[in-house]
Amino acid sequence: MNSLRVLGIESSCDDTAASVIQVFFDKGEYCEAKIKSSIVFDQGQIHNKFGGVVPELAARAHTEKLDLCIEKALIEADQRLEKIDLFSVTSGPGLIGGLISGVTFAKALCLGLNKPLIGVNHLAGHALTPRLSHSTKYPYLILVASGGHCQFLIADGPQNFTRLGGTIDDAPGEAFDKTAKILGLGYPGGPAIEKEAFDGDPNAFKLPLPMIKQKNCDMSFSGLKTAIKREVDLLLNKSGQFTETEIKNLCASFQYAMVQIFVDKTKKAVSIFKNRYPEISHTVAIAGGVAANKSIGLALKKISIDLDFNLIIPNAQLCTDNAAIIASAGSELFIKKLFSPETLIARPRWPLDENAAPMIGFGKKGRKA
Ligand code: KG4
Ligand code: ZN
To answer: What CATH class does 2-135+318-344 carry?
Structure first.
């Protein structure tokens, strides 16, 4: 068994992250990895008052914190920089300023130390998380649900993904964040809504379930926050305010709508996956920040029993943005000799499945994800 010490760097959105992992591989196959350190400097405080990420502020904060973050990851892992075998950096998709900060920093390190550098697709980092957390074997079905993305993918290899469907508008995390903003709960909205929903009534408000009648795995989330806005306006018109209980009920109803959409669409994705691979034992995983939501996880656990699949939910620290998943995804590419060019650049738009039809954000600069 061979091993590699890998340093991962993530700066595609609002988290500056660095991680040291040790990856074990044999005969050109990734076997398992141990996380030695995983440091995340989250920028929540900077963006909180704006109710969303401000790209320029994010880029500046990454530039200011990257060196400290990497230093901390090395110290915590008791690892000397010179002994790192491979550097792995998120090179897209994401906010251009943050990506440039990370890629430039990583390139400078590799040039100075004469070490290899791999550019990683941030979504591949999320989609490959089960490989790091549970040493899951290919192929598996993965739902990546985060603040910027949402798609069902069959993962056949570190660079081999088939998209079965995805959101046609907002990402689910974005819907959580926008709804939290409407309710005055701050940013990021997911954990805040989950907390409020805990003792709310999920049936108090009847919200729409967009696209649930369609037979495909596509989803739509933007109507949900509009429905919440309408309910809030109705409450305000009636009594000029909304109560603590109404906030809890709105959160519980919103979260329940999310759960129903994910349950319905996961069933459809599992059916496609099973048709494609009838003979294997089926594994379904969920990753990305929204996978940290316990109600969604519990609902998927329930259907995993009925539909006979093995459900994998990596722990919350690996679901939200971090650099361990980037280090791990980079090592998989390296082991398979899928090297990055020396001219590696930030790529803000970068779909995981290049063959799939564009869903959102298609413009003259190309597909978003
Ligand atoms: O994957 P991630 O850390 O960053 C992106 O790549 O987007 O995901 C962040 C998103 C945010 O929108 C946040 O509100 C959401 O994940 N999130 C959650 C929870 N924790 C984070 N959404 C629902 N429930 C949660 N517990
Ligand atoms: Zn992410």
So the answer is: alpha beta
Q: Among the bound ligands, name the one nearest to the CA of residue 288.
A: 1
pLDDT above 90: residue 354: no
CA of 263 to the centre of ligand 1 (A): 18
Contact 119, 340 (CB under 8 A): yes
Q: Is 256 helix (H, G, I), strand (E, B) or coil?
A: helix
Q: In the sheet that 150-157 helps form, which strands lie side by side, from edge to edge?
A: 160-166, 150-157, 140-145, 283-287, 310-312
pLDDT single digits (tens) 27-62: 999 999 999 999 999 887 777 777 677 888 888 989
- What is the domain partition of the chain in residue ranges? 2-135+318-344, 140-316
DSSP H/E element including 60 = helix 55-77
Residue 356 CB contacts under 8 Å (≥ 6 apart), including other chains: 162, 163
Q: Does the pLDDT of residue 5 top 70, yes or no?
A: yes
Reported as a pLDDT band with limits 50, 70 and 90, residue 362 is very low
What is the rounded end-to-end Cα distance, in angstroms, of the chain?
36
Q: H or E element: which one contains 37? A: strand 29-42
Q: What are phi and psi of 164, to 5 degrees?
A: -95, -20
367 has pLDDT over 80: no
SS3 168: coil
Distance 4 CA to ligand 2 centre (A): 24
321, two tokens: 């943005």
Protein residue closest via CA to atom 23 of ligand 1: 190
| Contact in structure between 116 and 359 (CB atoms under 8 Å) | no
Q: Kindly indicate whether the domain formed by 140-316 is annotated with CATH number 3.65.10.10.
A: no
Which among 146, 195, 224, 286 is the best mutation to test ligand 1's pocket, defined by most ligand atoms within 8 Å of the CB?
Answer: 146
CA atoms within 13 A on the CB side of 6: 33
Residue 319 Cα to ligand 1 midpoint, Å, equals 8
Overall size of the chain counted in residues: 369
Residue of 178, 290, 318 to mutate, ligand 1, most atoms within 8 A of C-beta: 290
Q: Are 164 and 153 in contact (CB under 8 A)?
A: yes
- Do 2-135+318-344 and 140-316 show the same overall fold? yes
Please give the distance, rounded to the nearest whole angstrom, from the Cα atom of residue 161 to the centre of ligand 1: 22
Tokens representing residue 108 in the block: 């400078």
